[in-house]
Amino acid sequence: MTDKKLSKKNTQAAYDAESITVLEGLEPVRLRPGMYIGSTSSSGLHHLIWEVVDNGIDEAMAGHATEITVTLLPDGLVEVADNGRGIPVGIHKTTKVSALETVLTKLHAGGKFGGGGYKVSGGLHGVGVSVVNALSEYLKAEVRREGKIWLQEYKRGAPLKKVKPIGNVKTTGTTITFKPDAQIFETLEFNWGLILDRLRQQTYLTKGVTIKVADRREKHRAKNYKFYFEGGIKAYVKSLNRSNQVKNETIFYVDKEINDSRVEVALQYNDGFNETALAFANNIINPEGGTHVAGFRAALTRTLNTYARSQNLIKEKDENLTGEDVREGLTAIISVKLANPQFEGQTKGKLGNAEIKTYVEQIFGDSLAAFLQENPRQAEAIVAKCFLSAKARIAARTARASILRKGALEGMTLPGKLADCSSRQPEESELYIVEGDSAGGSAKQGRDRKFQAILPLRGKILNVERARLDKMLANNEIKNLVIALGANIDDQFDLGKLRYHRIVIMTDADVDGAHIRTLLLTLFYRHFNALVTNGNLYIAQPPIYQIKKGVSIKYAYSDEEKDKIIKDFGGSKEEMIETEANEEETTETGAPAKAKTSTRLSIQRYKGLGEMNPEQLWETTMNPASRVMKQVNVDDAALANETFEMLMGADVAPRKHFIQTHAKRVENLDI
Question: Which domains does the chain have, with CATH numbers?
């Protein structure tokens, strides 16, 4: 195999009407949109933008575009423009209509399927702009090509007129303007922050491309961002590590092409305990990894061991560093581009191409070996970090062996504080993690003993962002939780042995409760990650207020909901202000709480779960028929990792900046 330098302009067949391959029409899309964009929720709504942007990214990866612009417009419109070659407009020999109309009205029609248009391409679901057209109330396509501007408009996927030229132009490119269909989507509100994060990531992954983002939804509050990263994924690693103390100041980076595939890897070590390795294939994130990650890990472990032995850092009688040792504190981006990616699952979570493992292992392994030889001081810092990790692993193994005995994990020695459920069917069982004995007492009395288990925690658990496994397992609260779950921890965690399929965090609606919730989320994200990605983790939503009028009782989960209930009950804001001075202490059975009373309404503010009696806790927070729960998931692993590092890491400066930036947005802060 020989490495070939990647050219900006790829040698390939002409991109014209003959490059467009047609597989099927659009009829199924409006009937079952979830099959094509994942869901009709906010996630599916944003996928419309991703699909159109991916066309521009494909042009950039092929060396034909340098700029993409995304603009949010009034009335729910989105405009995505690129300066690529422009979608072909000639008559397609199979469909007998313009290639532009074919691309926009036929599912799986495009230059990505026949081999003539693109060498590599992305697109989350591979369905492209045709699905955007089908799920849009209105879509306008403007193509700058062959010296003219070509126009076609559509209504819910159907063309209103034929493609026609509307003017002359010297530039090339495509502009798609669309309005998502209210008949399809549950929400039409675009998330500005989510769009910025996604497009920033795509800019990192496409070296040399500029992506501009503008928000024009409100005339007087326009926002503009421009992303350009000359260093590509090398700059991405630097950004991910900006809150960390790094070990090798020089970031390792390699970018090579081999047998029509391209391998790009960047890595840097920090003094933390967690691994952040993000994998991409054709700019699509692969949260479950795949063959490119397998090749990367194999080469990383082998190369570092080979170097350490060649420098006599590992004696002949000593054991090699393990994969776990060399990945602690690692921040890495693995990005591959290939002609025919084979993914597992509709969302392309895992890459399956066998040859890519060999390519990554060879290119990355050889380049890392050269980097270590050429940068001895950097290499020494990396190896020293790995040896420290190895010592911690041995200590953690000892701790794990002494605490997590086989019998304990099979339920023979469950924690004494755990009030277990009678069911032994994990799929119907749920574990409530509550703060304090008071809330635990109410929860134990109010629960359904058949399927609900309660585990009270004493105080705040250890911040695991700053602790290794041996220190974690010395913490009684964490140890009890691990044993209660029954599925071990970290790399030995086994979802198949999980004793409860719903793990529910239930804390008070105050500052301490929020802190405990954040500590628990950090623990689950870092050491029980499969729980999060598999959808087993939930956050209970206890009410903030109980509002009474005579025998009628309603619960409010926010101030807005409280105001609405007061209005529905016939109360008024003025009346509540007048009765504020008459605040008095009232006592209900098992539930002391402050109440604002009037002749018409009684409003009780719950500051803790322990203030609710068991019946109230069951009805509002634990009864499957009436409770409100939030399922925890991670849409963006890099953003989640950065957030946990910022909130819970050792570096104070980023956390201080976050607090100063967002302090004014906090309402009803209880201290």
Answer: 3-227 (3.30.565.10), 233-400 (3.30.230.10), 406-541 (3.40.50.670)
